[in-house]
Specification:
- The protein is an alpha/beta fold.
- It has 2 domains: 199 residues, 3-Layer(aba) Sandwich (Rossmann fold); 153 residues, Rossmann fold.
- Helices cover 40% and strands 18% of the residues.
């Protein structure tokens, strides 16, 4: 599919990355789609939390349009949604069920649900506590773009009738690259606090920091409880905007990746932080989860840790040459498979798959009818 498309994305937030891991993923994807000549509008709820912490780059501000309620969304953007070639509704969108019903009713083009939280979403659905997606809507989307691959896709297809396909997060390779500067930290970690990630952070960073007093460590991210007993050699950074992420990764000899419990159980759920760190050539130490070996080759492109002892061995005893080689191999893998441009290409391939299922007439923004295979 080489034609230029009109794409509408209804996502959690692209204007603020504060406590919002979706922002960097959306920003990278939108930039890649625009580079390929597509026209993209990103619609998001005007929430005070994000309004007070805006950090959207200037090149994306023109894409973002805010709405205050579902009623306002319908009033102001019905024509955009109706005439778009592709409408994507994201996970965790406020009133996502009502919005999904409206999109499926109004949109004449292809509709997709982009789940950047697939294991969490399925756990919520099983407990009947998902406020952004209802089971009855799943089969109604032409595509279910899943942050998670592997066996969970079969669950979505068999249990819910989803047209589920893997759609991993990705990195903007133009913004993440090695800086070749002297590292400030032996090991760092970036991520918003999550109770189910904290035990792994405790085991793989805090305990090594307590054991190795000469080591230098850093944890960046908001919402950590005040009662956490941080060792004196761990620097706490409350928040880093996306523009500061490459600098932070390049300031580390190794970076740590730890995964939420639902995503460990499901497997095949690579965080965008994995791809960002790897693009910077920073060697990654990760907790273990099924499917990790399909993203990076353990021992050659990534290090998989089970306890503090392993982490300390790598931090203190790994030869620099091997450390550099691991970082370089991971960067090569990401540039070959996991950039935002790869995802934009994948998305157009998926639209071609939808084209094989059905043919519908669409109308462009100018009102001119054209036969569009969607």
């Amino acid at each position: 599919m080489s034609e230029s498309l009109d794409i509408v994305i209804l996502g959690l937030s692209m204007r603020s990355s504060w406590g919002n891991g979706h922002a960097t993923t959306y920003r990278a994807l939108v930039r890649a789609l625009r580079r390929r000549g597509h026209r993209v509008s990103f619609l998001e709820r005007d929430v005070h939390w994000y309004a007070e912490n805006e950090d959207a780059p200037g090149d994306l501000e023109s894409c973002i349009e805010l709405y205050g309620s579902v009623a306002q969304l319908r009033e102001q953007h019905a024509d955009d949604v109706a005439h778009a070639d592709l409408v994507i509704v994201g996970s965790y969108v406020p009133d996502g069920i009502e919005i999904g019903e409206w999109v499926q009713h109004v949109a004449r083009g292809t509709t997709a649900f982009y789940d950047i939280d697939t294991p969490v979403t399925l756990a919520k659905l099983e407990r009947c506590k998902c406020d952004y997606l209802h089971p009855r809507l799943i089969a109604g989307y032409d595509l279910y773009l899943s942050f998670t691959g592997g066996p969970l896709l079969d669950t979505l297809r068999q249990r819910y009738g989803a047209h589920a396909l893997p759609f991993y997060c990705a990195v903007d390779a133009e913004r993440y690259a090695p800086a070749h500067v002297a590292p400030q930290y032996d090991l760092g970690y970036m991520g918003t606090y999550s109770a189910d990630r904290q035990p792994a952070l405790q085991s793989l960073l805090i305990e090594p920091a307590r054991e190795w007093h000469a080591g230098r460590f850093a944890v960046a991210g908001p919402q950590y409880p005040k009662d956490i007993d941080w060792p004196g050699n761990v620097r706490r950074i409350e928040h880093l905007g996306p523009d500061e992420h490459p600098r932070f990764y390049n300031a580390q000899r190794f970076t740590l990746n730890v995964t939420r419990a639902d995503m460990v159980q499901a497997g095949y759920s690579p965080s965008v932080r994995l791809f960002e760190a790897a693009a910077c050539g920073t060697p990654i130490i990760s907790d273990a989860w099924p499917g990790l070996e399909t993203i990076f080759e353990p021992g050659r492109e990534i290090l998989v840790a089970h306890d503090a002892r392993q982490v300390l061995y790598w931090l203190r005893d790994m030869p620099s040459r091997r450390r550099y080689a691991i970082g370089a191999a991971a960067r090569a893998r990401v540039l070959a498979e996991h950039t935002a441009d790869h995802r934009a290409q994948t998305l157009t391939r998926y639209l071609d798959r939808v084209a094989q299922r059905r043919v519908i007439p669409l109308y462009g923004r100018g009102g001119k009818r054209h036969d569009h295979v969607a």
